[in-house]
Amino acid sequence: MALPPKILIVGGGVFGLSTALSLSKRHPDSQITLIESAPTIPNPHGSSVDTSRIVRADYASSAYSKLAASAIQKWRSTSWGAEGRYTQTGLLLVYPGNSASAKKYAEKSYANVRAIEGDNVVYLPTKKDVLGVVPPYGETLDVAGGYVNWGSGWSDAGASVKFVKELLDKEKKVVFKHGEVKRVLFDPSSSKKRATGVEMVDGETVNADLVILATGAWTPRLVDLRGKALATGQAIAYIKISDAEQRELENLPTILNFATGIFIIPPRDNLLKIARHAYGYRNPITVPVPGSQSGETMQVSLPETGVPVPLEGEEAFRVALRQLLPRFVDRPFAGTRICWYTDTPDGDFIVSYHPEYEGLFLATGGSGHAYKFFPVLGDKVVDALEGTLEPELRALWEWTEATPTSASEDIFDGDGSRSGERNSILKDELAKTKKAGRGSVL
Ligand SMILES: Cc1cc2nc3c(=O)[nH]c(=O)nc-3n(C[C@H](O)[C@H](O)[C@H](O)COP(=O)(O)OP(=O)(O)OC[C@H]3O[C@@H](n4cnc5c(N)ncnc54)[C@H](O)[C@@H]3O)c2cc1C
């Protein structure tokens, strides 16, 4: 399908940048503009930017396993993964004795990656086998078994976003614009409302034939996504370690426990990261319903940036460290951060034209696992724009319902890999933290 000449992408994270890169190659005559509200790309508050992100084909879903395998090929053997942007030290996926769902996810994932990586994937039926793979982890490790996939790794997420931005700057085919989009503009006279561009917060309008929203966890402010997507805050903490500790830990696999959601990625530059892949914190805010003429409002969960991890999250990390790496249990955190997932009901992305508005396309819904696809994601987004996306992915990513199904109180189950408290409100947790006399948890 031919694409219209003037294309506007909003958002400079992995969805927006990879789309810009693929569009600039496949549609070199299009006029492409990318608007980002942060003053810099990489945006330190964006979901795509961090010290590290896991790169794994270890999924219970074979569609994501296959797609991740194609991305991993690029991380491994092209400039995507060069200069330290990709490090392949493996992924150790473990489950405790008391979580049937975590064990089930691990077993499905094992079967999927074993088919792709063969002998790179080793089943570890007992705790002793697990400890054999990560000797520096303590006897306190609370696991019943798992497997290790030596074909997985991790990527320096800030460096990779910078790499793609620099590629685009060099190509000069995409115009970058700094500013916050307030709303999408529509031509009300067309029978199916047609997007005509965006209005910026300062009142400026930017016209386009096609508007692609790659606005991550902020998207529910621009499109009514009730029942479709919401922002959930996930906890991350960093621990400063010595040179000797760095050498001891840097070549270990990432450890991921789907029962607790806790994962530890091998350190770089004397910084060890511990994080939690969970239901997360919600941050309900009342905002106008996008496109409403009558002043209608809705409550949606949106990101709150620059806040520390609440006491509850810090304590969960301490419990996990006691089990995993007890020597760090009392070491102060060098920093903490809430990073925002754009969660969807099943953990599937939204890569689709909006069913109600012509010329409006969404590339979002990363659900805490989109980063690894950076090298291949843009091509899939452009396939979807052109109407040629393979049916298996289209079935997962296409927006099929025109009407939102329910209110913002949704707590999505995701892909079965989530754990923890299901109904946690960030403001309440921060208030509890303050009450406990901890203005900051650092
Ligand atoms: C804690 C954490 C850990 C994760 N771990 C992994 C992992 O190990 N492996 C993995 O594969 N994935 C992981 N992910 C998921 C992955 O990082 C995300 O799915 C992906 O980065 C989402 O990219 P995005 O482009 O949708 O969002 P973002 O990177 O947030 O980009 C959206 C951009 O849009 C901009 N924007 C928003 N609204 C507007 C507006 N109105 N006007 C202009 N600009 C706007 C924002 O400023 C932002 O820069 C993790 C995510 C988090 C938060």
TrEMBL record:
What would be an example GO MF term here? Answer: L-pipecolate oxidase activity
**Pfam families for the chain:** DAO
> Record's InterPro entries?
FAD-dep_OxRdtase (IPR006076), FAD/NAD-bd_sf (IPR036188), MTOX (IPR045170)
Q: Which cofactor does it need?
A: FAD
Judging by the UniProt lineage, the source's domain of life is: Eukaryota
Task: Outline the extent of the FAD dependent oxidoreductase domain.
Answer: 6-383
Keywords of this entry = FAD, Flavoprotein, Oxidoreductase
Alphabetical list of PANTHER family matching this protein: PEROXISOMAL SARCOSINE OXIDASE
Similarity comment text for this entry: Belongs to the MSOX/MTOX family.
| Protein name stated in the entry | FAD dependent oxidoreductase domain-containing protein
State the organism named in the record. Answer: Penicillium frequentans
